[in-house]
């Protein structure tokens, strides 16, 4: 058994079962790069304030870099008895440089060390997720010219409601994912606050320079309360929530496209590379990737609950329970990143089925609202117009016809204000073209959205 960094007052070695129960190296080894980065900044600060010499600092920096390379190349041995990634790296450093390595932990606890690592890791995760979200937005926006002549039914309650340009759907998802990006940037404000130097819980009597390490690690601020530093995992809960909402939006999109891919809808064709077959039914093409994106959304959502339940009963400062916080962080991040990578490729490769969509476009009286709003423009009160159009729809249903099939005389019997210009409004494509309010699904408003997103995303 290796000597424990905390073992000075203990008379017995740790039980092997406890070693296995308390280790975290099996999942926190992925923090190696940020742990080394934080330790190197800490060493530079110790040299700056005179707690170690410049020569000792340089030796620590060089050996830590060497250890990092070995870990990255898979040449470093991990052992349960060394508990976590922090002790693995420190032990390797001490093995190679002796007492110089023992000086690295001066004015530092694993408590503020772990928090620093987690913040550095979460900061990198935010940047990567933001980049993947942008890739997905770009994939949606770049569909505009390909789909610009297509009109789709918009749905409420999964019932046909009003017609919109196809790109109106794509830009709707851009909005959702943009809010996700905004939330991540807001989360970053609280992540990007340096905990390094808070030590175990009370700070230190040694003359450290916390502002200097914050500067080296590119933190924008320094945490003000050492007691809070040890207990704070708000930023992880917040990041996990951001991941859960991204996953929810991905699940909404996947659910919609799963329906659109069905024979009943027939709106969209997915690339073969993103579908699978049946082991017994040779004709089947299943949207398994979309279904798994929908299914995997349960994990980030559950991770929010895991970390909140983990934290809710803890007294102030560090408690060993918090070792489990990384599981929620890693799982939510990994799951969302994997889903986003596939989502962008699917959006790019999918094709709308123009003939099927056009053949069914006039089903469901998508122009009914446009007719009602025509009556409003002619001076009819809204509720009165609603009732008139409702009766006309019922008449058409009894005849199995459409509103555009009604003669001008029949329309005028329902409302004398109707004129022959009504036929410029009736029909799904005309009804779409009539939409003119800012942000709506009509021709010009959608073109305006396209210009906005091209400029915003730098396309």
TrEMBL record:
<protein>
    <recommendedName>
        <fullName>Argininosuccinate lyase</fullName>
        <ecNumber>4.3.2.1</ecNumber>
    </recommendedName>
</protein>
<dbReference type="GO" id="GO:0004056">
    <property type="term" value="F:argininosuccinate lyase activity"/>
</dbReference>
<comment type="similarity">
    <text>Belongs to the lyase 1 family. Argininosuccinate lyase subfamily.</text>
</comment>
<keyword id="KW-0963">Cytoplasm</keyword>
<dbReference type="Pfam" id="PF14698">
    <property type="entry name" value="ASL_C2"/>
</dbReference>
<dbReference type="GO" id="GO:0005829">
    <property type="term" value="C:cytosol"/>
</dbReference>
<dbReference type="InterPro" id="IPR009049">
    <property type="entry name" value="Argininosuccinate_lyase"/>
</dbReference>
<dbReference type="InterPro" id="IPR020557">
    <property type="entry name" value="Fumarate_lyase_CS"/>
</dbReference>
<dbReference type="InterPro" id="IPR024083">
    <property type="entry name" value="Fumarase/histidase_N"/>
</dbReference>
<keyword id="KW-0028">Amino-acid biosynthesis</keyword>
<comment type="pathway">
    <text>Amino-acid biosynthesis; L-arginine biosynthesis; L-arginine from L-ornithine and carbamoyl phosphate: step 3/3.</text>
</comment>
<dbReference type="InterPro" id="IPR008948">
    <property type="entry name" value="L-Aspartase-like"/>
</dbReference>
<keyword id="KW-0055">Arginine biosynthesis</keyword>
<feature type="domain" description="Fumarate lyase N-terminal">
    <location>
        <begin position="8"/>
        <end position="299"/>
    </location>
</feature>
<dbReference type="InterPro" id="IPR029419">
    <property type="entry name" value="Arg_succ_lyase_C"/>
</dbReference>
<feature type="domain" description="Argininosuccinate lyase C-terminal">
    <location>
        <begin position="365"/>
        <end position="432"/>
    </location>
</feature>
<keyword id="KW-0456">Lyase</keyword>
<dbReference type="Pfam" id="PF00206">
    <property type="entry name" value="Lyase_1"/>
</dbReference>
<dbReference type="InterPro" id="IPR000362">
    <property type="entry name" value="Fumarate_lyase_fam"/>
</dbReference>
<dbReference type="InterPro" id="IPR022761">
    <property type="entry name" value="Fumarate_lyase_N"/>
</dbReference>
<dbReference type="GO" id="GO:0042450">
    <property type="term" value="P:L-arginine biosynthetic process via ornithine"/>
</dbReference>
